[in-house]
Structure formats: structure tokens, C-alpha cells
Amino acid sequence: MPSITFDINKLSEDQKEQIVEEFTKSASRITGIPEESFYVFINEFPAENVGVGGKLLSKK
What we know:
- There is one protein chain.
- By secondary structure, the protein is of the alpha+beta class.
- The chain has a single domain, classed as Macrophage Migration Inhibitory Factor (2-Layer Sandwich).
- The protein is built from one helix and four strands, in the order E-H-E-E-E.
- It has a two-stranded parallel sheet. A two-stranded antiparallel sheet has the order 3-4.
- Strand 1, helix 1 and strand 2 form a beta-alpha-beta unit.
- The protein is elongated, with a radius of gyration of 15 Å.
- The mean pLDDT is 96.
- Pfam families: Tautomerase.
- It comes from Methanobrevibacter millerae.
- GO terms for molecular function: isomerase activity.
- Residues 2-59 form the 4-oxalocrotonate tautomerase-like domain.
- This is 4-oxalocrotonate tautomerase.
């Protein structure tokens, strides 16, 4: 079970569909593994839950 994990802020449903489709196609083309074998996990982290350089992203 090959898997792809993508961490990002919020995405729309349409953006998620595009991410899953394009990442799967690319990974399959590069590895030769059938698209049906791939799992794609999208982890959404709101800006208020992420800090960079000692500051919350929601405060930047």
C-alpha cells in the first residue's frame, strides 16, 4: 500500500479532488505502481494550529 501524505492549511473539496488525482497520477507514472494501489492522506492544519519562527501563522 503506497501512500502519499500532504500537510496543508485548508483546502476546498475541489482542490482536494485535484490533489488526490494529480499526486496519484504522478506517483504511478514515476514508480510504475498502478494508480489503484495508492492512498492519499490530506492533513489540514488551520493557521491557528501552526507556528513558524515562534509565531502562530494566524498572527502573521
